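Fig. S4 source data, part A: sequence.
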Amino acid sequence: MTKKILFRILIFISFVFSFSLSQNLLGQCKVLACNCCDERQYYLLLDSVNTVKGSFFLDPNDCSSPIGGLAWPPGATYHFVLDPKYCPQDDPITVYVTGCVCRLEPLDTVRLPCCNQSLRQRLDKSNQDLKNYKLYQNYPNPFNPSTTINFDIPEDAYVTLTIFDVTGKVIIRPINHSFLKAGYHDYIWNTRESELSSGIYFYSLKAGNFSDEKKMVLIK
């Protein structure tokens, strides 16, 4: 083997090593979100203008998969908050994270806050205190591929939940004149296997003499 060929091989190996190292460094620009609480916690990830970018839960002493990387623009700031659906608070704790500008340094592990009241205690209390029917705004919104629809009913009632498009065409009626107990209820609508296009959709709730309707946006 001539010196010239050997030199080219060494140059190629050096290039491959440098490329591999750069890719690993790029991939390190991530964060692990950890729940150090004694109960499962539910969180929202929001961007700098408070748009919900994702929602997730973590079991006690559990950490998320790596979040961020190339999906976060350099220098962009995101923040984690407790999901108000499961932990309503007047003054929620927010954890801010800024993506590394040079992308050559990994972000450290962040420890997320705990809700100061258990979910079961909150639901028991809310069921006792419910006095009005209420249909909540879905979350996240906009969404892809799934979103959660919540509603309160203060008494046992026959309930119908309908999802339809802008033309009034019914897409799905997941709850069709079903008898539900008084309390807090939710429904998760997953569009992953559907052929629905991006756009505006509506959902309506009918329970007893109550009816309400709200708008949501699907982005694919």
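Fig. S4 source data, part B ends here. Residues 27-119 form a domain with the Immunoglobulin-like fold (CATH 2.60.40).
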